[in-house]
Design goal:
Helices cover 50% and strands 11% of the residues. By secondary structure, the protein is mainly alpha-helical. The protein has one domain: Zincin-like (2-Layer Sandwich), CATH 3.30.2010.20. It has a three-stranded mixed sheet with strand order 1-3-2. The chain is globular.
Length: 123
């Protein structure tokens, strides 16, 4: 599927997920940019992350100070080709996995660790 179509499907899934969030979390979620990329760049892979990673939160979590070691603003990266491969070419599975991946990365922005994400069904 073409990247432009995957981007549209993903953006729709993220928008729908945001609309379903409680108002206080929805307001926070809308402040974090979401970037739709084909796949991880070499910098991400150099950090030891797998090439088939579905998404990534970068920056500092909400409520923390910007650190000198990571001055970049918070952002969520969604890797559309990996998500599409994970969904095995099924549009509905792609939408659902995009939603779950977005919520997982948003959870990192909110400061939730892997155990807290798992407790919320976002692992």
């Amino acid at each position: 599927m073409k990247f432009t179509r995957l981007t549209k499907l993903a953006a729709d899934a993220v928008g729908s997920a945001q609309r379903r969030l409680p108002p206080d979390i929805r307001a926070l979620a809308r402040t974090v940019p979401v970037h739709y990329l084909a796949g991880p760049d070499t910098d991400v892979l150099a950090e030891g992350l797998e090439p088939d990673i579905l998404g990534l939160f970068t920056g500092n979590p909400h409520g923390t100070e910007i650190s000198q070691s990571d001055p970049a603003p918070p952002q969520i990266l969604l890797y559309l080709e990996s998500l599409w491969d994970f969904a095995e070419g099924d549009v509905e599975a792609f939408r659902e996995e995009t939603r779950l991946t977005y919520l997982h990365e948003l959870g990192h922005y909110l400061g939730w660790d892997e155990d807290e994400l798992a407790a919320r069904g976002l692992d």
